[in-house]
Amino acid sequence: MAQTFKNFIGGEWVESISGKTFANVNPANTDETVAEFQDSIEEDARQAIAAAGAAQSEWANVPAPKRGEILFRAAQILESRAESVAREMTREEGKTLPESRGEVGRTVNILRYFAGEGARLSGEAIPSERERVFIHTIKGALGVVGLITPWNFPIAIPAWKLAPALVAGNAAVIKPSELAPLCALRLVEILDEAGVTKGALNLVTGTGKVGRELVVNPAVRAISFTGSEAVGGEIAVECAKRRARLQLEMGGKNPTVVLADADVEEAVGIVMNAAFFSTGQKCTATSRVIVEENLAEKFSARLVERTRELKIGNGLEAGVDIGPSITGQQLEKVLESVETARASGAKILAGGERLSGGNFAKGFFSSPAVVAGVDVEMAIAQEEIFGPVLAVIPARDIDDAVRIANDIRFGLSASICTKSLTSAF
């Protein structure tokens, strides 16, 4: 029977006021319930915010280097539990075990990096234009912060929000995605064990109603959100109403430009990694590859060959390259995007099919898709898909490639494959 986890509020593990829980299901095998979590409501969030507020002064009064030492201890604890956390990540999110191990290692580094900031939270001495006047700045904690994190990096993103908030002396309430909350909970367990002041760190699981309470509650001084463009836009409006500080990381439609002088084998490997690993479920994933016309045919042919060699399956199995989509709904979005491209006149060179039967029967699997004949106006060239779908777009030259790359409303990440430093810069 799956374990049931509780919320962490005021230094105690407590059940939701709702009395309800929800299941976290393995997307590679929906027969497996990874764990049960609290289906929290607004009042749970309010209690967590109140607990954070009550602990704020005590935590802020811990000297910053000492707060850094706590993060260093947390990094050591996580490193000692890396394998078990990585396996739980693969079970709850679906990414391959090597990717999960890499994310846990990255999280250890995040904790260590921000731990070091505890000894560097210095202010400035500023020259005055007046005699006998000394001007200086001191950095202080902002107050209670609300952190809303997604499912695709279920421990790294919680860490890169929690670690800087805590080392700066802020009390925090984190709401992880209901699709993959276990790794965030493990991080909170570790930070508590490392010595964070009771009440300064709170975790509430549940759906959007919890996140909304964090956004609108006047006791929350700042919000950090990673997620969809639509939700982020709504949060921005709400935070503007009460002038809360806000940090957003949202969607992307990222290009990799491949110029004619690029090494084809290396460029194909780079693009495949960026487009398909993590099942393409990254806001920074390459979803458009813009190839100079002279190389487009050769590049596409090799890309298709190597894409067909990728092994799809349960991320816990050795040799698997690509795991499942996170949910059936996300899988349908991926498949629909391919069919919409086909209907618009694009050509599906490889993949884009639902995989079922055998080892795929109980998971949300699809074959990675390579789509050619893509016009820049097509939805596949403009809309974020969040899945293993790659549009191949030809360009006349580097200037045309840059034009195509920028012909998008998103602006998140980009890359280039070329042997020319002049072109790269």
Description:
The chain has 425 residues and is an alpha/beta fold. Helix content is 41%, strand content 18%. It has helices at residues 42-60, 64-80, 82-93, 97-117, 156-167, 182-194, 208-216, 229-242, 264-276, 293-308, 328-343, 398-406, 421-424, and strands at 7-9, 12-14, 21-25, 33-38, 125-126, 135-136, 145-148, 172-175, 201-203, 222-226, 245-249, 254-258, 286-292, 347-350, 354-355, 365-366, 369-372, 389-395, 415-417. A six-stranded mixed sheet has the order 14-17-18-13-12-19, with helices on both faces. A five-stranded parallel sheet has the order 9-8-7-10-11, sandwiched between helices. Helix 1 (42-60) crosses helix 7 (208-216) and helix 4 packs parallel to helix 5 (156-167).
- Identify the overall geometry: globular
**Whole-number radius of gyration?**
23 Å
**Total number of beta strands:** 19
Low-confidence stretches: none
The mean pLDDT is: 97
What is the rounded distance between the termini? 56 Å
- SS-based class: alpha/beta
Number of helices: 13
Strand content: 15-25%
- Main beta sheet: 6 strands, mixed
Strand order of the largest sheet: 14-17-18-13-12-19
Provide the helix percentage: 40-55%
Strand and helix layout:
Blueprint (H helix, E strand, L loop, with lengths): L6 E3 L2 E3 L6 E5 L7 E6 L3 H19 L3 H17 L1 H12 L3 H21 L7 E2 L8 E2 L8 E4 L7 H12 L4 E4 L6 H13 L6 E3 L4 H9 L5 E5 L2 H14 L2 E5 L4 E5 L5 H13 L9 E7 H16 L19 H16 L3 E4 L3 E2 L9 E2 L2 E4 L16 E7 L2 H9 L8 E3 L3 H4 L1
